[in-house]
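SEVERITY: medium
COMPONENT: batch folding queue
REPORTER: lab tech (J.R.)

DESCRIPTION
The queue accepted two submissions in a row. Attaching both inputs and their returned structure tokens so the on-call engineer can compare them side by side.

ATTACHMENT 1
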Amino acid sequence: MLSILGYYSSLEFYYLALFLIVIGATTQSAVGIGFGIPACFLILFEPTMVPSCIVLMGTFLAFSNALLSLKDVILKDLAYSFSGRVFGTLLSVPLISLTFGTKSFLIIFGILLLITVFLSAKKWNIIATKRNITVAGACSGFMGTLTGVGGPPMAIVYQNSSSKNVVATLNMFFGIGALFSVLVLIYIDLINFREVVRCLLLVPGIIFGIILGRQKIVKDYVNINLKKLILIICFISAIIVLGQAII
């Protein structure tokens, strides 16, 4: 208890954070996105956990899921998505350092994401082409490093693909991309030893979420309702991004 209280404001908040991490990890493991959603709740109680802790834990979570489903990863897509991710991550650095224009960018991304969700719900079929994957990767890198919520752009591109390939490929993409974001955040000193320890205390929640998200009953449900689940998560993410901009 004493060690936990040394890194969190209260024991109650630690348990709340653990609960939110389980929900995020379960969603990410089952659908391929969604781990960033707990960030909107964590930031209300402990702003310093975002994006550092979310990005750091997201890296571990994504790589774990990707390695467990390595045979289902679409390797040829990773080069295009990751090149975009690098560009988007680098673009976000001056905004993190200077906080100049951050709200404007978040509002733009939030509105564009809402429009995309609406069009997708109206049977707008987006195909995972090389160009679309690259652009989505750039948007994901920008949003993920800036807010901890970077999944929606990539998920939108893959909404009409096979669920097992989508989940595996998205997790590998987020694992590699989030690792790059971690290095950037370490460089600008937003991730340090204290943040690492805070994340380690929440690792049980990630492991439990992975186990839940990979249960057969959950995977079967996702296989049938993938597009619907992606659009719901993307809609929630858009509201979160806009909420962060307003706050």
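ATTACHMENT 2
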Amino acid sequence: MKIEAEKIIYPIRNSFKILKYSVPQFEMPFHYHPEYELVYISKGSGKRYIGNSIHNFQSGDMVFIGADLAHIWVNEKEVKTEVDDQIVEAVVLQFSKDLLDSLIDTPEFIKIKKLFNRARSGLKIIGPTQQNIVKKLEELLICQGVERILCLIHMLDILARSKDLIPLNPVDFNPGAYHDDERINAVHHYVISRYQYKIFINEAASLAHMEKSAFCRFFKMKTQKTFTRFVNETRIDHACRLLLENRLSVSQIAFEVGFNNLANFYRQFMKITGQTPGDYKSHR
């Protein structure tokens, strides 16, 4: 999937952009930009791609995306029975990372600065925080002048203090690392879309148009990790998300993310996170 750079244009006399969309289908390509972005899907369903994460989305989905983190929403096409059957609706907020530049290093903004760092991996917003942010977005759509900035800061403060944020990519994810290499990008999407199943290194090498040995050297050079390590990190990353959602048991999660051996799941989880699944869950 080709990644394109997008230039964000702000409305006249506005320092950030917030728009409510109601369209038959999301049409933006897989893209990235230096601005932070918060997206709330009020109507629609399909798949969302953020960095190396691929998840289903539906009405009520909300995410906060850091600078240069590639993303796209692909909504499902439904059988049309009424005029607005295929309409998808979203509120999109975009603001420059320089907007709060003079404040971000002050003691009062330390939590918001940490939020921006966490947003590098993309954050899914759930629970009461999601409901509070929906209200703030409604305010932002109608308020004017200084009230807009104050409302934005208040919204960021809510996010910065929240425990309802789930990372969508590993914490050490580098958003801009793969924008210019379609081979790595293709391999990453192969792994992300198949992490629940058996993954074959020969297939990954084929996507990069390389022999297996050459591919292993190439992948290590580009990512500073082996292909096997990347596959395991991807699976453990999804396991962490499922642990936070608190719907499945540890053994169910292990098999859900592609580990056919529970002991190996525990071993890899400890190796990658430094914690057992139980400890990880209790400390979040």
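NOTES FROM REPORTER
The CA atoms of residues 36 and 272 lie 28 Å apart.
No errors were logged for either attachment.
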